[in-house]
Amino acid sequence: QVTLVESGGGLVQPGGSLTLSCEASGVQFNLYNMAWYRQPPGNQRELVATISWDGTTNYEDSVKGRFTISRDFGKGMVFLQMNNLTPEDTAVYYCSVRHRFTRADYWGQGTQVTVSS
Q1: What 8-state DSSP symbol labels residue 26?
Q2: Handedness of CA 112, 17, 75, 99 (dihedral sign)
Q3: Cα–Cα separations (whole angstroms), residue 46 to 34, 49, 91
Q4: CA-to-CA distance for 76 and 42, rounded, in angstroms?
Q5: How, if at all, do strands 46-51 and 105-107 pair?
Q6: Do residues 112 and 9 lie in contact, with contact meaning Cβ atoms separated by under 8 Å?
Q7: pLDDT tens sequence across 40-94
């Protein structure tokens, strides 16, 4: 059974940094592609960053150069390092994994990130 639990959200001032963590249980990392999504207030959920089973990373244009997605096989964790945050980054952030072959998707419960002075 796959479970994803995000943590690390909170209130941060513009220009600040946060690191989100996702504890992924029941996930064999070499079988899953992993991603962080976010849902700003009043908007649809959007893809932020992905890390494929082979370690390839991709980012949404607005976060390139500011956000970094990474993973720790041994700890079963996925991270999103966020730097130089702006109010436009305010959203609920979700961790998601997709099985490479079955295409099954799993989601965490989300963690709130608020960027405000």
Answers
A1: S
A2: positive
A3: 14, 10, 10
A4: 32
A5: unpaired
A6: yes
A7: 999 999 999 999 999 999 999 999 999 999 999 889 999 999 999 999 999 999 9
